[in-house]
Amino acid sequence: MENKLAELHKDHDPATDFLPINGTDYVEFYVGNAKQAAYYYQAAFGYQPLAYAGPETGVKDRASYCLQQGKIRLVLTTSLDPNSEISEHVRKHGDGVKVLALWVDDATHSFNATTERGAKAHAKPEVQEDKDGRVVTSAIHTYGETIHRFVERKDYNGPFLPGYEKWDAKPLAKPVGLKYIDHCVGNVELGKMNEWVKFYEDVMGFKLLITFDDEDISTEYTSLMSKVVSNGNGYIKFPINEPADGLKKSQIEEYLDFYHGAGVQHIAIATDDILSTVGELRNRGIEFLYVPDTYYDDLIERVGKIDEDIDDLKKLNILVDRDEEGYLLQIFTKPVEDRPTLFYEIIQRKGAKSFGKGNFKALFESIEREQARRGNL
């Protein structure tokens, strides 16, 4: 299947794409304490302060901090009302992703085109304006309580969105080389994967890229199934996972138990120099999953010649996989919340367009070790 990845988007015709997407606009988290979460993402991951919205800017019910690194924008939002939707989301799920915002040229068309095809509306098209111009947004529901917000910002020159002001703060730390969101992974309940794949195909015009079954993603104890969908130009890629039968509780089941429903499992972020990025993240206290040293014993035999020194990769615990287009390097953090839910992948692609299938067994054995320590395997 993976040898087809290079062919996926060669026939994409923008003229026939009913939902053209320019990329990820931002990812918004609902959190218990946005000020402290913003400090963490600045100090640990090197995100830079961009914009702020809250009582000081005329927004009375919440506080939101927007951070940026490369093309990535994160928004961290806390409710000031204990009875709000935001507070209920945090009570139920813990800190987690609420909004996967998509940058489009026409948010009204995007809303109409998707709701006509069966999407459940979350917010009708709305125009927001301030001294820096106008932004049009709309939103639809996807798996769990996650939403896709369409953002049309061609007539806007402000720091982020109306209601936000430039966040003039001294940077806490230098960027670590994070460039853009490579893909974003959702965990859904047993039997729901194909339903959500069909949603992305029928409602949003995405294409199925690749399927991984329980033989591809399994260990002695657990397994899962995954399908990857992508929009026409390939800028947006959403793998969707569901549990599969196994002897013990899979990582997907653990996530669903602690998140109390479907949601975003991990966000993969691209870098051009994974050794530098991961080295600096480790220096700042970010914890990564551990893979035994034996993984590297036959690495060259498995993946062929690579530019990096094996000892450097081994020291940082970075994984390598190859497809017909080249190779990739990847590593996964431990969960960044107290609940074993959201984590991050750091990925560097050197031609490869796949998702590290050759590393699945080592990765999931590592996850199982962490599950066992938590008593959840």
Automatic annotation (TrEMBL):
<keyword id="KW-0408">Iron</keyword>
<dbReference type="Pfam" id="PF14696">
    <property type="entry name" value="Glyoxalase_5"/>
</dbReference>
<comment type="similarity">
    <text>Belongs to the 4HPPD family.</text>
</comment>
<dbReference type="GO" id="GO:0003868">
    <property type="term" value="F:4-hydroxyphenylpyruvate dioxygenase activity"/>
</dbReference>
<dbReference type="InterPro" id="IPR041736">
    <property type="entry name" value="4OHPhenylPyrv_dOase_N"/>
</dbReference>
<dbReference type="InterPro" id="IPR041735">
    <property type="entry name" value="4OHPhenylPyrv_dOase_C"/>
</dbReference>
<keyword id="KW-0670">Pyruvate</keyword>
<feature type="binding site">
    <location>
        <position position="266"/>
    </location>
    <ligand>
        <name>Fe cation</name>
    </ligand>
</feature>
<dbReference type="GO" id="GO:0046872">
    <property type="term" value="F:metal ion binding"/>
</dbReference>
<feature type="binding site">
    <location>
        <position position="345"/>
    </location>
    <ligand>
        <name>Fe cation</name>
    </ligand>
</feature>
<dbReference type="InterPro" id="IPR037523">
    <property type="entry name" value="VOC_core"/>
</dbReference>
<dbReference type="InterPro" id="IPR029068">
    <property type="entry name" value="Glyas_Bleomycin-R_OHBP_Dase"/>
</dbReference>
<dbReference type="GO" id="GO:0006572">
    <property type="term" value="P:L-tyrosine catabolic process"/>
</dbReference>
<keyword id="KW-0223">Dioxygenase</keyword>
<keyword id="KW-0479">Metal-binding</keyword>
<feature type="domain" description="VOC">
    <location>
        <begin position="180"/>
        <end position="334"/>
    </location>
</feature>
<dbReference type="Pfam" id="PF00903">
    <property type="entry name" value="Glyoxalase"/>
</dbReference>
<protein>
    <submittedName>
        <fullName>4-hydroxyphenylpyruvate dioxygenase</fullName>
        <ecNumber>1.13.11.27</ecNumber>
    </submittedName>
</protein>
<feature type="domain" description="VOC">
    <location>
        <begin position="23"/>
        <end position="153"/>
    </location>
</feature>
<dbReference type="InterPro" id="IPR005956">
    <property type="entry name" value="4OHPhenylPyrv_dOase"/>
</dbReference>
<dbReference type="InterPro" id="IPR004360">
    <property type="entry name" value="Glyas_Fos-R_dOase_dom"/>
</dbReference>
<keyword id="KW-0560">Oxidoreductase</keyword>
<keyword id="KW-0677">Repeat</keyword>
<feature type="binding site">
    <location>
        <position position="183"/>
    </location>
    <ligand>
        <name>Fe cation</name>
    </ligand>
</feature>
